[in-house]
Amino acid sequence: MEPLLLKSPYTVANMARPTNRRGTDFGLRLAEARKAAGLTQQLLAEKLGVSQQMVDYYERRARNPSADFVRRAAALLNVSADVLLGAPQPKVKRGPPSEWEKRFSAIKELPRDKQREIQNVVDALIAKAG
């Protein structure tokens, strides 16, 4: 009698999600935050105390990540758990630009040499005040 494994249409190679398919929403947000932090999957795994395969699983296949993983990953990646979980972020309504913002905008419009002159004056004033 042949082993059941040989008759099965499933193999280790086809059990994983193909890499050309889109990851889960959580996984995409996790990968984006990881890359923004300048970390590889391996480095993130080491910092979290898990395997690289576990990070790959969370980025590509996990639909319901554990609360502990989300909390630890968010803290390590310097984002909120809400960001990783895709909770709607409140829109910050800005008021009119401050006087300083107006000044900086005007300075940005000046030629580079004039910007450097202003920078030198400001640096000198800061050094004198400090």
Q: Would you tell me the structural class of the helices and strands? A: mainly alpha
Give the CATH class of the largest domain: Mainly Alpha
Known CATH architecture of the largest domain: Orthogonal Bundle
Distance between the termini: 86 Å
Number of strands: 0
The backbone outline, from C-alpha atoms, is: elongated
What is the CATH fold-level name of the largest domain? 434 Repressor (Amino-terminal Domain)
Radius of gyration: 25 Å
Helix content: 55-70%
Strand content: under 5%
Per DSSP, the total helix count is 9
Regions with pLDDT < 50 over 5+ consecutive residues?
1-15
| Biggest sheet overview | none
Could you tell me the mean pLDDT?
84
Q: Estimate nothing, just give the exact number of structural domains.
A: 2
| CATH superfamily (homologous) name of the largest domain | lambda repressor-like DNA-binding domains
* Helix/strand order, N-terminal first: HHHHHHHHH
